[in-house]
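Q: For a teaching session next week I want to show students how multiple molecules come together into a single three-dimensional assembly. I've collected the sequence lines for a complex. Could you give me the predicted structure tokens for the whole thing so I can convert them for display?
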Amino acid sequence: MLVLHVVGARPNFMKLAPVHAALARRGAGQLIVHTGQHYDAAMSDVFFRELGLPEPDRNLNVGSGSHAEQTADVMRRLEPVIVETKPDWVVVYGDVNSTVAAALVCAKLLVRVAHVEAGLRSRDLTMPEEINRLVTDRIADLLLTPSADGDENLATEGVAKERVRCVGNVMADTLLRLLPAANDRWPELRERLPGERFAVVTLHRPSNVDEPARLRALVDALAELSAELPIVFPLHPRTRESLRRVGFEPPATLALTEPAGYLDFLAMQSHATVVVTDSGGIQEETTILGVPCLTMRENTERPVTVTLGTNTLIGSDLDVLRREFRAVAAGRGKRGTLPPLWDGRAGERIADILTAQ
Ligand code: UD1
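A: Of course. Below is the structure for the complete assembly, covering every listed component.
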């Protein structure tokens, strides 16, 4: 049996690791294709190393471009690899452009596709990721959902039950496995952080960082709040570029850093007083860690992080951010509980399903 995994962007790598390891334990043949959507060492290589993943077997080197260019380049370069290797299953992860591109290629070649993290919906079609989720789930053969809301969304869309399996959250597998290693790095890392209590911020969504006035207002609010609780803000390349154009000079209490590796970022999150983000995965990681998370978005495709976990949707109103940030800093953050099946065994369940079919 041959399973071919397609990954391309930072949030894919931590989802691949537990599925790959569980399939390896079952003796399945595996190939990893990296599309090259994320290509900087800090966005890609460090994750393969820290997650214990083997080097990708192929790199399609698509790099950056418009959505159409990036998606089309993955399709053109992946097709001959699928034709040549004839996998029994292709596994795609999450909601990035590489995910939908790979699913389209395989659906047309009649090669079976499994989608890990299926069924999530923000119902916001201005997000490219929502389009990627909808299209991928429409054409993939096997939809592996992280939580019951995913199953409900798919049922509402008329997807046959036989195509859907609720397996839990693969991000939790990786986090729970690597938390001890992350904690080992903490003594050294804390020396570089502003103090015992701090906030972590990540922002990279076009809706927050592409428009100069919006980004400026956001970082001005963060600069103000950092006087009360120091902030560490690892910068996504897209955000770094936008900030350079805005000409923002941060105060000493707001540390702008390079993108962090998986272990350092996990250690930072787990020791943070609060995390402010517009990421999808970080909403989940903070829920698993029990750390309050303030999400700078109007909606979320991960509602269990709000209903059961530690996540609060802030929307775009910066006064709401100020109020909630101060409330958490004063100890009034959400506590939350772990959603069902976020137990560190999702990769095992996926491997069982794939090897049984
Ligand atoms: C992508 C995903 C998003 C995910 C995010 C995580 C899509 C549609 N979006 O967004 O869902 O949350 O990854 O990071 O797939 N760049 C570099 N070096 C890199 C990668 C990107 O400099 O290694 C810069 C380039 O200028 C590029 C820009 O970042 O144009 C955006 O990269 P891209 O892959 O298009 O989307 P992300 O914003 O990273």
